[in-house]
Design a protein that fits this description.
The chain is mainly alpha-helical. The chain has one domain. Helix content is 76%, strand content 0%. It contains 15 helices and no strands. Helix 1 crosses helix 12 and helix 4 runs antiparallel to helix 6. The relative contact order is 0.15.
Length: 336
C-alpha cells in the first residue's frame, strides 16, 4: 500500500516545532524572572517532536520506496550535511571579521568530521543550536538497525525497547553526574523512544491507514494538560535532574498542543506555520547567526532589547532563510 509522503499535519508539526524553538531562542534575550524563563524553555521541547517526525518521515519513506544504506546516507548527506557545513563555514568566515564566535581549526573540523558530538567544549561552536545536527545524524547512522529491529518485533515490544533504552541512558547520565552536559543529555539514546514511536505510527498509517493523530479534541486537551502539568512539575521542582526525565510529558504535552492548534483550522495560522515548515531547516541553521549578529549591533548602538527588536530579528531570520532555501534546493537538484 502506497501512502502519501507529505502529510499536512506532519508538515505543520515540523513548522510548529522549528518556529517555537526560534521564538524560545529569541525570548532568552529578554530580562525576565527566572520562573518565566523556565516556562519559555518549553518552546525548546520542539526538538522532541522533530525527532518523532523524523522517525515517522524516514520510515514512511522507507516503506514507500526502500533503498540501500549507501543511497540512504548519500541522500541524507546532500540534504542535511552539505547545508549544515555551508552555514558553519559561512559563520566561521564571518567570525574572522566580527566577534561572533571563537574561531579555531579544531572547532571547525569538529563540525566537518562530527567529532564535536563527543567534545562539550566545541558542541556549541558556530551556533549552539547545531548540537541537534549531531543527534539527528546519529539516528541516520543507526536507522537501518532500527528498521531491522522493527521488522522482528511487534509494535508494542519495539516501543517498550525504545523506552527501556532511553530510560537506561538517562539513568547512566544521572549516575555519572553528566545531566548538564549536552554531549551526554542529548546523545541519541536519550530520544530513541520518540523516534521509535514515529516509526510505529508510520507503519500503522502505511499498513492500516490509521491516522493516530486524528483523535477527538477532548482527548487531546486532556493529554496536553497532563503533559504540561507533569513537565512543569519536573522542570520547576527538580532542576537539571528533572530535565533528564521530563521528555515523555514534554513530548506529549507539546505535540498535542501542536495538533490542537492545527485542528482549530485557523487558516492564517496554519498557512504561516506550513510556510515555516517549507523553510524550516534553513531557518533552524541560520537563526542563531542572525540573533548573535543582532545582539552585537544592538549592544554597539547601546539599544536595550525589547519585543519589537525580537520581531525584527525573527523577520530577518525568515528573510535569509527564504534565500538560503533557494540556494540549497539549487545545490540539491544539481547533485541529484
Amino acid at each position: 500500500m502506497i501512502k502519501k509522503k507529505n502529510i499536512e499535519l506532519i508538515d505543520f508539526l515540523k513548522g510548529f516545532s522549528i518556529f517555537t524553538i526560534v521564538i524560545y531562542h529569541l525570548l532568552q534575550l529578554l530580562k525576565m524572572p527566572a520562573i518565566i524563563h523556565k516556562f519559555i524553555a518549553f518552546g525548546g521541547t520542539g526538538v522532541h517532536t522533530f525527532i518523532f517526525i523524523s522517525g515517522f518521515g524516514l520510515y514512511l519513506s522507507y516503506l514507500n520506496k526502500p533503498i540501500g544504506f549507501v543511497n540512504f546516507v548519500k541522500k541524507r548527506f546532500i540534504k542535511i550535511y552539505i547545508p549544515y557545513i555551508i552555514i558553519v563555514s559561512f559563520v566561521a568566515l564571518i567570525s574572522l571579521l566580527i566577534p561572533l564566535y571563537p574561531n579555531s581549526w579544531y572547532a571547525y573540523f569538529g563540525h566537518l568530521l562530527f567529532y564535536k558530538m563527543f567534545d562539550e567544549s566545541i558542541i556549541g561552536s558556530y551556533g549552539y543550536q547545531l548540537w541537534f545536527i549531531s543527534s539527528i545524524v546519529q539516528f541516520y547512522l543507526f536507522f537501518y538497525i532500527f528498521v531491522a529491529l522493527k521488522n522482528k518485533l511487534k509494535n508494542s515490544h519495539f516501543l517498550i525497547l525504545g523506552f527501556v533504552i532511553s530510560l537506561v541512558w538517562s539513568m547512566i547520565v544521572v549516575y555519572f553526574g553528566k545531566e548538564d552536559l549536552r554531549i551526554w543529555n542529548s546523545f541519541f539514546p536519550q530520544f530513541i523512544w520518540e523516534f521509535f514511536l514515529g516509526m510505529i505510527l508510520a507503519n500503522l498509517y502505511f499498513t492500516k491507514g490509521k491516522e493516530i493523530w486524528d483523535t477527538k479534541i477532548v482527548y487531546l486537551f486532556v493529554i496536553a494538560s497532563i503533559g504540561l502539568l507533569l513537565y512543569s512539575l519536573l522542570a520547576l521542582k527538580f532542576g537539571s535532574l528533572g530535565k533528564m526525565f521530563n521528555d515523555i510529558p514534554a513530548f506529549f504535552g507539546y505535540t498535542t498542543i501542536g495538533i490542537l492548534l492545527y485542528k482549530l483550522n485557523l487558516k492564517w495560522i496554519n498557512s504561516f506555520i506550513l510556510y515555516i515548515a517549507s523553510i524550516s531547516y534553513s531557518l533552524y541553521l541560520i537563526h542563531m547567526f542572525v540573533i548573535k549578529t543582532g545582539m552585537l549591533v544592538f549592544n554597539n548602538m547601546h539599544i536595550s532589547y525589547n519585543f519589537l527588536y525580537l520581531v525584527l530579528l525573527l523577520l530577518i531570520s525568515i528573510f535569509f532563510s527564504v534565500y538560503l532555501e533557494k540556494v540549497l534546493k539549487f545545490i540539491y537538484n544539481k547533485m541529484n
